[in-house]
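Researcher: Following up on the earlier apo prediction. This time include the ligand. It's zinc ion, with the SMILES given after the sequence.
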Amino acid sequence: MYLGFWYVALGAVLGVDFTGATSLEACAAEARDGAGRVADQAVLNTFLTCTNRMEREIILWMVGIGPVWACLTAVIYAVYPVILRRKLHPVRIPADSGVRAARQEADVGADGTPTHVRLLTTPGTAGGARVFGAFGRYRLAVDTSLLAPRADGNGLDERSLAMIRHEVAHLRNRDVDITYLTMSS
Ligand SMILES: [Zn+2]
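Model: Understood. Below is the ligand-bound prediction.
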């Protein structure tokens, strides 16, 4: 947003035109005022001085808004996982062998990263998993249907394990932070 249309939208709110179109018009009007009365060179000078001043103003605005943008990004980055967690309506299920296997997988998979992942069981039956979080606190949300223990009661089936490993890999690759920070900015 910072590098895109962010400025244009914010400018509309603040009454600043970051595209420079308004200032060009204003400068042209200012220069036109003198046309006919003063030399052409003076008209041109008035216009150029005016556009330079406007450009400097726009740059100052852009620099000044930087910290505001950074704060907004941090807030969205921090708040989004909280909202997501609520929307997922996590449920408590007994820690049977499936849940234990999933937890173990998340712990082992996260090895090497200084973060901790908490397993969140969600009521979905679609058999989905997703990892999210911020500032080193992450959640691995797994649909309860994925956590059903194998028929022999020994851990999880291969499909569930693969999905959990896939999600944990996202975490290890810092995909969670990269994705959510990009989205927030
Ligand atoms: Zn993925």
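Model: The mean pLDDT is 85.
Researcher: Noted. I'll compare it with the apo version next.
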